[in-house]
Amino acid sequence: MGEIAVFGSAVSGAAPAPGPNPAPAPEVTPAPAPAPVADQQAPTVPASLTAGSITQTSVTLSWSASTDNTAVTGYDVFRNGSLFSSVTGTTTTITGLTAGTSYAFKVRAKDAANNLSGFSKEITVTATPVPAPAPVPAPAPTPAPITNNNCVPAKLAITPSMIVNEQGKGDAKMLVDEQTLAGLPGQGQGGSPTTVWMPGWNASDYPASAYIDLGTATTISAIYLRDVNDAGAFTIETGSPGNWTPLVADKLTGYLSWNQHNVNISTRYLRFTRGSVGANVSEVVIYGCMGASTPASPAPAPTPTPTPAMPSSARFTIDQFMGVNAFVDDPIDKMQAVGFVREYHDWNWDEGNIWSGGGNHKYPGYPNNQMKWAPSEPGWNFDNFYTNVKNAGLGISPAIQGSVSWLHGGISFPYHNKPIDEPGASTTNPNSYEKKAHHMYQFAARYGATPVADGKLTLAPGQPRHTGMGLIKYIEDWNEQDKNWEGPAAQFSPQEYAAMASANYDGHANTMKQGSGTFGIKNADPNMKFVMGGIYELNLDYVKQMKTWFEQNRPDKKFAADVINVHTYAWLNNGPGGGGPAKSPEEDSFKEKMKAFVDYRNQHLPGVEVWISEFGWDTHPTSPLRVPVVGPFDQQEVQGQWMVRAYLAFAAAGVDRAQMYMLRDVNTSDATHFSNSGLVGPKGSWAPKKSWYYVYTMKNTLKNMVFIGEQASGNSDVLIYKFKNVNGSNGGYVVWAKTRKNYTVNGLNVTLAGSPTTATKVEMVNGKTEGVRSSLQINGGKVSVDVSERPVFIMVDNIQ
């Protein structure tokens, strides 16, 4: 979620309460909440949407019926993202189409209580075009000869993983996802690929660009574009990200044709740009040679096979993997439901705490900084806080978020804006972030494990001159820098964030020598880990573009972050404003989505950790992020079930740390999303919810264990995950139904791998942090347990 800004100063010895604003970004102002109704269960998603009887002006759509706990009353049919019609049956005929034009259709179900299902899979339908005149036969095209004598041009083997979507709109991988179906257009044997990258249906979605990274310098002789039946500008550029040169411009005036463009270049990158909604290309085929080789046809690209995440290589046991978002004034005993804390920490608190109602308006700023931590300007003593966290056995990563008010010489620099040193400074130059990089150095110098010279500390008079306190091993740089709801001055492109991160990591490979010369955490404590600010979208291309920027701009080409960090919330309609009700971890494919990041890390950045540092659900009955009431389970119960299932999904994906949002509720009576996602009640109450007990039970039960694999259950609705103690042969199985319909299985037989002699069932129970334990009888290497949507643990003394 968006940054949480807190302002104020200590009054009568009591520090102001840090916490989210009443409507934390990226919320939109919700419509007045309707009065709660008895039925809150949405129908199932319509399946098997298909198109038939396509003509120049019409198409007939059909789909499989949805089911509901009461009754499905109808279906909404959407065309190009807008509601087109509502029908009661499972078929409809759409008229008024334009010949040769493509349309996107999707369907959702609704019931009498106006509960809406998720959308069906979207399909693209092209109205039958006006027949084109028969083409005049032409000889099969051949790629143009090239000057590289060592190259015999052939079709290159390119894969969707090579594509980087620069704007994140649509699925740009569709440009190269049907290479086999595309055939060999260079030999006159081109096929008929059909999938089209569609960034959107609005003019504001264009131009849209993506580039392909071939992995090495490549000699290219020809590029073929599969031109479907619209028209518009489609351009190709060569060079490198941020430094492009025009190569090809195609107006796409053909009809289901392969448009040949002969070139003679050597490049690692090609950039493709769609100029408008009509610039439809269903596939790109490239001819040439990788480097100076003479490949056979097709020439394979040097793409290593991704290394799967091996359970035995898990960096952290489950009790340390499980984390929570919290604040300096949250009770530590409540934090101990998990093993790791992500602490929201405003930069402004350390340097002046200037805000509209107060703070130190005479704060001198850089380079005459007077930083305060013990106590801080608002009054909290962070030395004491971090010491208490460490003594409680918890790890912590402060997420240093927001700008300071004194930037640019005033007292009102916008909190969310990029913290460049001077107005007009380049946002892609690391030297523009000197003041931020100095703060990061000072933070690491104080709380890291490596002492620095006292003369390098820039502390306020009266502050304890501590250094190398050894209290913190991670620092996160910013929070949701990809936000698109605070304007362009706040939204970091991947290149802009990479530039700031490079400065804050190690002074841009220690090349920032101007001013104080104290820049970046690594120059204060080389062993402290730099956490990339958590991006609000699961956008792997954002990470890929950061990596490219580092390779092109850092002297050492190093990926300047020790942790890849992302956020996700499970909405039926994804986006920063949300669109509920919510989906379960399995419905939203938590494991599969995060595994994509883990696989990329394993292949390209094996020394880097992967975190999911925000996820969660509300318990307010009308919040758009609410969990549903399921059968006899109230919303607190379902929140607890889904929270545990989310941690399990992320562990199975190979994620290193997962931090839920967040420890405490903001306001239990507020229906605004994120207001009641807590494991406990709001500040001053701290009353544990069921989810707090369930999460605590998972942490205690799987302590010192790591995920070692999934086991078949014999039931497509039931999952079994296995965990093993890193220092012994004991372990456990976690069994649950992945559904959201009060599904149960009585007496499921679970096969026990290894040679266990004892088995104990642990059930999560409200009010218990260790759960309730009971012995199980092992018969023929199996135990029998009743299964529901609430996970149950089977602990054994031996597991394989």
Kindly describe this structure.
This protein is of the alpha+beta class and 800 residues long. Among the domains are: 47-117, Immunoglobulin-like (Sandwich), CATH 2.60.40.10; 154-300, Galactose-binding domain-like (Jelly Rolls, Sandwich), CATH 2.60.120.260; 705-796, Golgi alpha-mannosidase II (Immunoglobulin-like). Helix content is 15%, strand content 27%. It has eleven helices and 33 strands. Strands 8, 9, 12, 13, 14, 15, 16 and 17 form an eight-stranded mixed β-sheet that branches. Helix 9 (590-604) links the parallel strand 23 (563-567) and strand 24 (609-614). It starts with 46 loop residues before the first strand and ends with a strand. Residues 2-37, 132-140 and 292-312 have low confidence and may be disordered.
Short description:
The protein contains 11 helices and 33 strands. The chain has 800 residues and is α+β, with helices and mostly antiparallel strands. Among the domains are: 47-117, Sandwich (Immunoglobulin-like), CATH 2.60.40.10; 154-300, Galactose-binding domain-like (Jelly Rolls), CATH 2.60.120; 705-796, Golgi alpha-mannosidase II (Immunoglobulin-like, Sandwich).
